[in-house]
Amino acid sequence: MGWRSSPHPNPESLATRHLSADIPEDVAYAGEILKSGGLVAMPTETVYGLAARALDPAAVGAIYAAKGRPSDNPLIVHIADLWELGSLCASIPDAAVLLAAHFWPGPLTLVMPRRREVPDVVTAGLPTVAVRMPVTAAARALIKIAGPLAAPSANRAGAPSPTTAGHVRADLGGRIDAILDGGPCVVGVESTVLDLSGAQPCLLRPGGLARERLEALIGPVGTDPAVEGAATGQPPRAPGMKYRHYAPKAPLFLLQGPAAAAAAYVRARAKPGAAVLCFDGEQALFAGCYCVSYGREGDPASLSRNLYAALRQLDRDDVSEIYARYPAYTGGLYEAVRNRLGKAAES
Ligand code: TXA
Ligand code: MG
Question: What is the pLDDT of residue 2?
């Protein structure tokens, strides 16, 4: 293929190639870049991931540098076949076998005891490794070419996760070797992270697979207090949950309660240049204020799919503050949407 690994001497100096997930030669080329130790942003059903070969510590180290990610925040390893679990995990709990059979490929990450062969830079030194099997054909093809791939969301640390190739380029253009464009992500929020390494399964991050679907299969699932933002004095078990995440540049305030009351609140409080992140059909209520809708309140899949793109649009428009309509419903995908809005509102 003639592609040589770049040593990443100077972040921002790379010509980031645009490749198409629909063109087999482009996918093969992206696979060669990964095999040579490079970085490729790849489409998954949840969000775009910034991939490197998981068993190559130098390549994985370059992910942290490109993202500006703190080194104590471990990465998810992506696989394409169940047998690959054996090379990553020291033991595979029965619940993992059951969950994988039902929900993989899909937006579910399982945390399990790691094997020593998994580099410390992937797990941030933890005794566990997080693994998932993505849905998109492009991601699976890359894994088949280059082996298991470590991939965090392909944004600069702290920014909302990218759900289009354009979002990735805005954050990481010039810092990574290539972006494999597979169009907009279908789910739009990150995977659900479930820890199976302890006595009881524990939800570390709500995401694209609803908790109820896990519980229907394996029984009650605990919740790490960090998910609700409770201050316990203990660090969250998913280190990533402690960082200000999913956050636009402008301060974000949650608007709870009925739409009319929310509109009155915004009229009384909003500064010049403020914007409303609203539900479909609410623009008239917030007349006079710049509104961006992120979907129907009754359709949580539309909210999760559009949330990050809407936050990024408000960033591009340089709004002074964001008033975000917070869905009144709970359960299902609402849990992830409410969690990400809550995190975006933390300062
Ligand atoms: O949908 C997704 O999960 C996307 C796509 C690209 O697969 N990836 C993603 O990765 O969201 P990232 O790095 O942005 O989030 C991974 C989360 C972080 O909160 C991290 O702390 C946690 O998973 N995590 C990773 N390994 C862990 C481990 N061994 N124990 C506990 N938490 C872990
Ligand atoms: Mg992330």
Answer: 42
